[in-house]
Amino acid sequence: AAAPPVVHYYMNNLTTSRTPIENRETVLVLTPMARFYQEYWDNLLKVNYPHDLIALGYIIPKTKEGNLAYAALQVQVLKTQSGPKAKRFASVTILRQDTETPLQSQSEQERHKLENQKPRRSAMAKARNSLLFTTMGPTTSWVLWIDADVIEFPPTLIQDLALYDVPIIAPNCFQRFYNADTKANDIREYDFNNWIDSPTARDMAAKMAKDDILVEGYGEMPTYRSLMTKMYDPSADPGTKVKLDGVGGATLLVKAEVHRDGAMFPAFPFYHLIETEGFAKMASRLNWESYGLPNYLVFHYNE
Ligand code: GDP
Ligand code: MN
Q1: Which atom of ligand 1 lies nearest, measured to the CA of 103?
Q2: How remote is the CA of residue 69 from the centroid of ligand 1, in Å?
């Protein structure tokens, strides 16, 4: 049949509810990817939200490392999308990113240096925006941001986060490591970008030059913000929710309406914040609140 000349979408009928499966709400899973990790993909396949309601979107840098990630992802995508119907995703979009100054691949130590934060996070912000603005459609209810190196998350991730019915929500991102002191496998905090603001940080921002930014997790720049990583308490209520002022992008569920209103990832200092932390600030200016789950853990790869 010929396509109708005009397609109408009734945006008010698009729901984002605490029962997203029952309401057949579509989820756009977005991942900026510099490296491919098999565990990320395996866990994505195990996600038990109906796959026909999930669209996947990737942006991969045009670097040697990115080429490898692209090749590895491509193999898995072809396998899944030609495999059992119930496991197939509604769609998969892969963007190759050809920026003027491609973000060079960096080790965990190198990319976390304070002086590398502004250019690196600014480039990441542009990558996230390109991915978001090319893939979000009129039927998208939710956007799940998940980094390619988040290698452990439960199959119920989407339902678990959606249940809170809040505009923006982040689990706590930790990392597994071998603790040489206790000679045992252990966990430690990873993502410091989920935080509650402090008077000190606000004061620092107020005194900063126009284009300077505040970043979190650096001893040379103590902000005294309350970091969600510090709030983790395995003996407390696993469902505890806290209100946040800054968020990270490692794992983040966002109601598509928030992005549709214009909240994106500023690549420029926005209230002295950039990228995901700037996003939380921009969302808050649009009256959308961010929350975090201190006792709900996902795990980042340990380099
Ligand atoms: P960190 O864990 O906060 O240090 O940040 P990462 O370096 O892990 O980057 C966050 C996410 O973006 C991960 O999924 C990376 O694979 C991906 N990533 C890193 N650099 C680039 C880049 O230059 N371009 C794109 N498209 N993705 C990137
Ligand atoms: Mn990472």
Answers
A1: 23
A2: 12
| Gap from CA of 128 to ligand 1 centroid (Å) | 10
| Ramachandran quadrant class, 71 (left: phi over 0; alpha: psi -120 to 50; beta: rest) | alpha
List, in sequence order, every residue forming a beta bridge with 55; answer none if it has no partner.
Answer: 28, 91
pLDDT value, residue 239: 97
Query: What are the boundaries of each domain within the chain?
Result: 23-300
Of 96-105, 133-142, 188-197, 219-228, which gets the smallest average pLDDT? 96-105
- Tens digit of pLDDT for each residue in 289-299? 999 999 999 99
d(CA 164, CA 25): 15
Let me know: does 53 contact 137? Beta carbons within 8 Å.
no
DSSP SS3 for 189: strand
Residue 78 has pLDDT above 80, yes or no: yes
Q: Which amino acid is at 110?
A: E
- Residue 2 has a pLDDT of 82
Contact yes or no for 177/233 (Cβ under 8 A): no
At the fourth CATH level, the homologous superfamily of domain 23-300 is Spore Coat Polysaccharide Biosynthesis Protein SpsA; Chain A (3.90.550.10)
Ligand 2 centre distance from Cα of residue 149 (Å)? 5
Q: For 182-204, how does the pLDDT look when each residue is reduced to its tens digit (9 = 90+)?
A: 999 999 999 999 999 999 999 99
Kindly tell me the burial class for residue 37, based on how many C-beta atoms sit within 10 Å of its own C-beta (0-12, 13-18, 19 or more): middle
Dist CA 87 CA 52 (whole Å): 8
The number of the ligand 1 atom at minimal distance from the alpha carbon of 190 is 2
42 vs 73: CA distance, rounded Å? 12
In whole angstroms, give the CA distance from residue 299 to residue 149: 9
Residues lining ligand 1, judged by CB closer than 6 Å? 31-35, 59-61, 97, 103, 111, 123-124, 127, 147-149
Regarding predicted confidence, which is higher, 122 or 106?
122
Average pLDDT over residues 52-65: 96
